Amino acid sequence: MIEKMSEIYDNAPTLKDWESANTVDDEMVYKGASTYQNSRLASVSEIMNVDYPKVVGTHRSKSINLPVTAYKFVGWMGEMVFAVLRDNFYDLEAYIISSHKMEIDLYHIYPYMTEEQYKHKRMRAMEYLKGRADEYDFDGLSWYKDYSGTELIVEGSKYYEARAMYLQGLSGLPFSLDYYRSPTDAFKVATNYAKLCNMVYEAIQATAEMAIEARKNK
């Protein structure tokens, strides 16, 4: 997967070149929002201290063509991490792809609730559904996804929420990724800009650790 992602990245235009070739008409209501969004996507590279992003795909929102941007980190041992982002004005979705298996604390990837908070939500859902409660499996976890569209990942006493993803733009890449399960070399996540860079940093650190182990075992 990392080889294919590298090939796509190497042959892609920079965000700046893509913007020059994909100007937004002045009459479009969301023109200002798209310009601001592209500046945020560009700023991610500065925060992560990597090369200017490249555009590896497109999608549309509010009748405007929007970029799917990729960011590449290469470590001193040749290990690599790609972050691929798509922002549709409402939510930010990402693919994280690594050259090595990653072990990352779920806290850095998904929001979580305690077991007590989970039980409270389950009780509220059962009260809300009333006569329809028997349509859901409240003894397990599947009810949460059926009810809210969010998949739960349980680790210890914490319930992590992997939000539903629509993957516009990301689905055009030749990968079908799942939510994070440790260890893995790739995963998908619905996130936000505040959490994104820390999550990518953790992915870079986890990749470097596995690269060091692989180097030791040679």
Which terms summarize this structure?
218 residues, five-stranded antiparallel beta sheet, three-stranded antiparallel beta sheet, 37% helix
Structural class, judged by helices and strands? alpha+beta
Helix content: 25-40%
Strand order of the largest sheet: 1-2-3-4-8
**Mind describing the biggest β-sheet?**
5 strands, antiparallel
What is the overall pLDDT average? 93
Q: How many angstroms separate the termini?
A: 22 Å
Strand content: 25-35%
The total of helices stands at 6
Number of strands: 8
Count of folded domains: 2
Radius of gyration: 19 Å
Question: Helix-strand pattern, N to C?
Answer: HHHEEEEEHHEEEH
Oligomer: single chain
Any idea what the shape is? flat
Indicate the low-confidence ranges by residue numbers. Answer: none
